[in-house]
Amino acid sequence: MMGAELGSEQQQVVFSVEHCEVCGIDNKRPFQKGDFVIKRSGKCPKCGREMMISAIYAEPLVKGTQ
Amino acid sequence: MITFQLNLFGSGSVYLDILQFLFIAVPWIVLLFWGQRLQVSVTLGQVSRNLTRLKMLRDKSKQVLVSYVAPKTATDSNTTSRLDDFLEYFTIPPVSMDPVGVVKRFDSIITTQDKRIKKEVEDLLPNTDRVGRSVAEQMVGIASALNQIFKIVRHYYFLGKKGSNYYLLAQLQMIMPMLLKQAEALVNAMPTLEMGQPLGDGIGPMAVALLMKDRDKVEIGTETVMAESEYKGRKLIFLKAQGPEGNVGEVDDALIKIASDQHKDISAIIMIDAALKLEGEKTGEVSEGVGAAIGGYGIEKFKIEQLAFEKKVPVYAVVVKESIVEAIGAMRKEIAESVKTVQESVFRIIEERVPENGKVVVVGVGNTLGVAQ
Q1: Can you name the CATH fold of B200-364?
Q2: What percent of chain B has pLDDT over 70?
Q3: Which of B20, B165, B193, B332 has the fewest C-beta atoms lying within 10 Å of its C-beta?
Q4: Planar angle of CA B294, B297, B302, nearest 5 degrees
Q5: ipTM score of complex
Q6: pLDDT of the residue at B196
């Protein structure tokens, strides 16, 4: 029965979360090669300061929403 | 059908008795004398199919490795054969008949192994940066592991086939789904490595990285960094592998160095790591405990336990639960989101267990790929 699960791994999509340390705003966007946690990346839409990647994680790909 | 037979042979006919006897006796005789052979044949078929799948995964991992290394290498003419040789490397563990000093000898052998892999990769990829090289090292590790798994399974398959050993084949048949699942997870992790994305195992370094990000960092040992901070009158010393390249550093040696050099008076050690969850446990669940939370062969664990014992320092552990498949794959959302809970646990332990003016070392254990500091 365990064999039935083989190859059934859901496809995943990886996101980088940019965080503004001043405003506390999070901006989730698709991962780009070269991203890493702590990297300075993007401008805060509210205060214009440089944001920091606070997390990189994978989520299951849901058909129709990605 | 029964009515037809009854009509044909008549009630109580000798033909009917013979037919009934054949229906019952023939299968019984066949199963009695050839039952195990039939079982062997069925099991062989199943194991053979799984072995073919395992071979496919092994070949795929080699293919991904070659396609990653070949365009970057200076000597591309013999890259494939060099990598093939590479995958056949083996490590002989130390003799343990006399266990005195076995950890030190094991440590020396593993250090030699690591240095050799690093040097080989460096020779293959002289113009690649540290992150790229560390990715190649990890890929070699995966391809090598799959090669070993395939060869061992094939060995027992042939052994079972040769001797028609059902019990050997049955054991193989039982573990094959689990092995295949792990092999698939290893192959699926290769694109994650190539992209430099954090792995599930990287939750420890990630939690510590976010705590030490604004502090001055010092390289304290091989591929290991430390930073100092303060919290409610306690001195905090953060320790993790150097990122964002994929390595686990040498946090054990760095910890020993810290405790015997700059900070002889440490009051506690807190280790943050990913831990294998039991079936039924939730991914990303945070648990607290005591003891050295670090995996591997046990060398690092031994050294940290020895240090804690000699210095009479308590070791606390904060772990994030995940499966082996999740640990070697791209970090899942549930795991990444546990960082806040982990940090809360760490600060609570510090407040409750570390006296004011005390010093505590917070160690982020795991592969720091995609996580800087």
Answers
A1: Rossmann fold (3.40.50)
A2: 96
A3: B20
A4: 60
A5: 0.85
A6: 94
Q: How many domains does chain A have?
A: 1
| A66: in domain | no
Cβ distance B282 to B326 under 8 Å? Answer: no
Residue A64 pLDDT class (50, 70, 90 cuts): low
Does A2 reach chain B within 8 Å, measured CB to CB?
A: yes
**Which residues 5-64 of A are in CB contact (within 8 Å) with B?**
5-7, 9, 12, 14, 31, 33-39, 52, 54-59
Does the pLDDT value for residue B64 go beyond 90? yes
Length of chain A counted residue by residue? 66
Question: Given an 8 Å threshold on Cβ–Cβ distance, is A14 in contact with B195?
Answer: yes
Nearest to B362 by CA among B213, B203, B205, B200: B205
Q: How far is B199 from chain A (nearest CA, A)?
A: 9
Parse chain B into domains and list their residue ranges. Answer: 43-195, 200-364
Domain holding A43, by residue range, is 10-60
Cα B299 to Cα B218: distance, rounded to the nearest angstrom: 24
Structure confidence by residue, pLDDT tens digits, B293-310: 999 899 999 999 999 999
Query: Would you say residue A39 lies in a domain?
Result: yes
pLDDT value of residue B12: 63
